[in-house]
Design a protein that fits this description.
Length: 214
C-alpha cells in the first residue's frame, strides 16, 4: 500500500529531527518541503511572522483551524508559556494521526489539544465541552472559503474578546477575498496585511492580522 505525503513528511521528521526539540522538527519539515515534496505548511518565511505575532500576543488560550501535519501547531505551541494551551481542530482523521505524532516528536503534546472534527461543529462546543472562556489568539489555515463563516461563528459564540488577535494564512494565494473584505471594512476589526510569499516558493502570499475590537 502506498504512503501518503503526510506519512512521508512524518517519516522525515522521525529520521531527521531530535525528539523533544521543536526547532529540529520545524527544520526537518521545511527541508522536506523545500527539497523533497512541497506541502501546504505555513512554512519558514510566513512562519517567522506567525512567531512574532504569537510572541507579541503571548496567548493563554489559542485556537488553530486546520492542523494538517501539525507544522504550525508546533510553531505556535513551542512559544507558549507553561499552563497555557493551544486547541487545534482537524477534520481529516488521517491527517490528525500524523499531526499527533509530529506534535509528540516535538514534545509538545501537553500544550496541545488536537480535536478531530469540523470547526463548524466544534466551535459551538468550545465553552461547554472544552471549558474555553474566550480565545486570545486564532490562527486560520483551513479551507479558505470557511474563514469568514468561522470567525462569524466565533463572534456569535462569544469566544472573541476585545483585543483577540486573528491571524489568517493565504489571504492572497489561494486567497480569501470575502474574509479580507469583511475584516478590512467591518469597524469591529483593526486589520493589517503582512506581505510574504507562498511557502517554499517566490509566489506572493501574506498573512492578515486582525484585532477584534469588541
Ligand atoms: C469544513 C471546514 N472546517 C474544518 N475544520 C477542521 N479542519 C478543516 C476544516 N476544513 C479543512 N480542514 C483541514 O485543514 C487543512 C486544510 C487546509 C487548506 N489549505 C489550503 O488549501 C492551502 C493551499 C495552499 C496552496 C497554494 C497554492 C497552490 F498552488 C496550492 C495550494 C497553500 C496553503 O498554505 C494552504 O493552507 C486540512 O488538514 C483539512 O483537513
Ligand atoms: Mg496555509
Amino acid at each position: 500500500t502506498w504512503s501518503t505525503r503526510p506519512q512521508r513528511l512524518l517519516k522525515a521528521v522521525q529520521k531527521k529531527a531530535t525528539r523533544g526539540d521543536p526547532q529540529s522538527v520545524i527544520s526537518a519539515i521545511d527541508n522536506f518541503c523545500r527539497h523533497k515534496e512541497w506541502a501546504m505548511n505555513v512554512g519558514d518565511e510566513k512562519g517567522a511572522i506567525l512567531d512574532c505575532v504569537v510572541s507579541e500576543v503571548n496567548p493563554s488560550t489559542a485556537l488553530e483551524l486546520g492542523t494538517y501535519c501539525g507544522y504550525s501547531t508546533v510553531r505556535i505551541a513551542r512559544l507558549l508559556p507553561p499552563e497555557t494551551r493551544l486547541i487545534t481542530l482537524e477534520f481529516n482523521p488521517d491527517y490528525a494521526v500524523v499531526a499527533r505524532q509530529v506534535i509528540a516528536w516535538a514534545g509538545l503534546q501537553d500544550k496541545v489539544e488536537l480535536v478531530v472534527g469540523a470547526s463548524g461543529d466544534l466551535i459551538p462546543q468550545m465553552k461547554q465541552q472544552f471549558g474555553v472562556k474566550e480565545f486570545d489568539f486564532v490562527f486560520l489555515d483551513h479551507w479558505k472559503d470557511r474563514y469568514l463563516l468561522d470567525i462569524k461563528l466565533l463572534e456569535e459564540c462569544g469566544l472573541l474578546r476585545r483585543g483577540t488577535v486573528l491571524l489568517a494564512d493565504n489571504v492572497i494565494c489561494p486567497g480569501t477575498p470575502e474574509y479580507l473584505e469583511y475584516v478590512r471594512t467591518n469597524p469591529r476589526y483593526e486589520s493589517r496585511y503582512f506581505k510574504s510569499h507562498l511557502e517554499y516558493t517566490k509566489v506572493e502570499d501574506g498573512l492578515e492580522k486582525s484585532i477584534f475590537l469588541g
